[in-house]
């Protein structure tokens, strides 16, 4: 390990809203971005990369709003990404300047592959561009981060030369991207150590070296940890590891590795780890990107012990097969907490223990929903409560509300669904449809009411707790067919999985309607504003 970095604090730079949002299919509207940014600030991240302001006016507006509302003096640094292009840098500054602690992150390729085939630039030209643009960015903003893109496949001496120029021009964070996830942990650690050692100005305590790794070979977390071990003091990460292609390094894995193996790394972060599960669910619900059950830290099975020999050990002593306590990441044991006779006070206290601070109105609605579920399901666990609350708090604005449904299915006759929705005009709309199965029939009936052409891309269902009366949780992703092909996620939880499926589809359609300003296009191609049968 390099002897340079004396600080043991690792800055957590979250890029869920930028690199994470570049995941195929993960698109977030501005309200969702805002909520995620608020949750990231509460989690304790040091930097939020809120977006790429030059990408679109919507991106610029979202970054600006986050800078204004989350970028408080005691809050995180708010960062905007920019290519080494004057216009991008101006747009990034236009958006982040409202934060108490603004940052511009500018990048330029350093690999010969990128310079030759993508940028059509010589090495010398790229050095000159980096110099000019870092200087320009620094003339606007006091905090500049520079990334030599594709550093992982670049000539190390050239990367060092580019970083030295960035330091000379005022960058204080040098981020080293393994853009295509090509490196191994050993190599990446050596690259960071090499850069600290050989870059003029690189050992100055005011300079932060940063790790930015992609997961194409499944080594992003290992590479980031190797970089930190070698002296880097910033990790660029996303919640659930979402990001371009196979994703970025996941925040929860790096943070929990540093916590759990503090004896080895001797490093710490400011993250409140108890919030990890909650924010993971929030990001999964909003992006529609389901977390695989065996995902480290936040997967549904991360703390389940299945094999008899493991269960036996666990019952004798928890340390036999457990290296972290589930509570440390906000997973409460699936103990029985509430039932249908539980009162409002006990409900409120339990929610507070789980980290939910609700307004009176939210509490009233959550309690009503809890009673409905408790009528069908005898024991309500913490996991059930979390699903009920995610549904309520992380759902989109309800343009259409589910007011009732009836489904018949089985081997005789066609699966048929009747759906009753309340529209934005307060009227009720009822439609029936047949389908290849009960869920298909429901979705067809909903489609007859809401004319917002879309295609179902993904449908996943899981049981939140064990047992025949388990609460089912459905996540869907749909794609709008109005020319933009935007995707929208939806989430629903209910003891009846067909009802959960209808709720999930409706919440995705509501997101689509909110994002398109309530405008849809009828299947015939005719423009319409939320058309309903009977109009
Ligand atoms: O992976 C990458 O190279 C990036 C840069 C823009 C930092 O995301
Ligand atoms: Zn990246």
Structure overview:
It is a single chain. Helices cover 39% and strands 20% of the residues. It is α/β, with parallel strands linked by helices. The chain folds into 3 domains: 11-287, Alpha-Beta Barrel (TIM Barrel), CATH 3.20.20; 304-393, no CATH class; 401-516, Double Stranded RNA Binding Domain (2-Layer Sandwich). The protein has an 8-stranded parallel barrel with strand order 1-2-3-4-5-6-7-8, surrounded by 8 helices. Strands 11-12-13 form a 3-stranded antiparallel beta sheet. The structure holds 3-methyl-2-oxobutanoic acid and zinc ion. 3-methyl-2-oxobutanoic acid (KIV) binds next to strand 5. Residues 19, 107, 147, 149, 177, 179, 212, 214 line the site of 3-methyl-2-oxobutanoic acid.
């Amino acid at each position: 390990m390099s002897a340079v970095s004396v600080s043991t604090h690792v800055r957590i730079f979250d890029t869920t809203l930028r690199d994470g949002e570049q995941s195929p299919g993960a698109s977030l509207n501005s309200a969702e971005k805002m909520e995620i940014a608020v949750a990231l600030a509460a989690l304790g991240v040091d930097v939020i990369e809120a977006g790429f302001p030059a990408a679109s006016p919507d991106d610029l507006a979202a970054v600006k709003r986050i800078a204004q509302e989350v970028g408080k003096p005691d809050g995180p640094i708010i960062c905007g990404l920019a290519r080494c292009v004057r216009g991008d840098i101006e747009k990034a500054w236009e958006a982040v300047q409202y934060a108490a602690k603004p940052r511009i992150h500018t990048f330029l390729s350093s690999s010969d592959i990128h310079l030759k085939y993508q940028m059509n630039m010589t090495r010398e030209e790229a050095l000159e561009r980096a110099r000019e643009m870092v200087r320009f960015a620094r003339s606007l903003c006091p905090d500049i981060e520079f990334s030599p893109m594709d550093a992982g496949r670049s000539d190390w001496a050239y990367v060092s030369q580019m970083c030295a120029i960035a330091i000379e021009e005022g960058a204080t964070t040098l981020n080293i991207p393994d853009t295509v996830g090509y490196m191994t942990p050993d190599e990446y650690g050596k690259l960071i150590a090499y850069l600290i050692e050989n870059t003029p100005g690189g050992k100055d305590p005011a300079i932060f070296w940063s790790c930015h790794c992609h997961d194409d070979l499944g080594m992003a977390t290992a590479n980031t940890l190797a970089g930190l071990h070698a002296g880097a003091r910033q990790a660029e990460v996303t919640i659930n590891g979402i990001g371009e292609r196979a994703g970025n390094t996941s925040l929860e894995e790096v943070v929990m590795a540093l916590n759990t193996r503090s004896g080895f790394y001797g490093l710490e972060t400011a993250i409140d780890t108890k919030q990890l599960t909650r924010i993971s669910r929030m990001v999964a619900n909003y992006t529609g990107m389901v977390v695989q059950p065996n995902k480290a830290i936040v997967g549904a099975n991360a703390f389940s012990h299945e094999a008899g020999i493991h269960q036996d050990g666990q019952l004798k002593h928890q340390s036999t097969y457990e290296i972290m306590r589930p509570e440390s990441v906000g997973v409460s044991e699936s103990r029985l907490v509430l039932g249908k006779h539980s009162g409002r006070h006990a409900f409120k206290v339990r929610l507070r223990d789980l980290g939910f601070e609700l307004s009176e109105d939210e509490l009233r609605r959550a309690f009503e929903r809890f009673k409905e579920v408790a009528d069908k399901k005898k024991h309500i666990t913490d996991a059930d409560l979390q699903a009920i609350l995610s549904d309520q708090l992380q759902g989109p604005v309800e343009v259409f509300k589910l007011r009732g449904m009836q489904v018949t299915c089985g081997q005789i006759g066609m699966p048929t669904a009747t759906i009753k929705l309340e529209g934005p005009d307060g009227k009720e709309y009822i439609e029936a449809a047949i389908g290849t199965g009960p869920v298909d029939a429901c979705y067809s009936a909903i489609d007859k009411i809401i004319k917002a052409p879309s295609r179902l891309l993904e449908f996943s269902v899981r049981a939140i707790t064990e047992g025949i009366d388990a609460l089912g949780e459905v996540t869907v992703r749909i794609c709008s067919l109005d020319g933009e092909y935007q995707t929208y996620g939806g989430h629903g939880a209910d003891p009846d999985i067909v009802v959960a499926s209808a709720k999930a589809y409706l919440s995705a359609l509501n997101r689509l309607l909110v994002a398109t300003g309530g405008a849809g296009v009828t299947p015939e191609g005719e423009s319409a504003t939320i058309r309903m049968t009977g109009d």
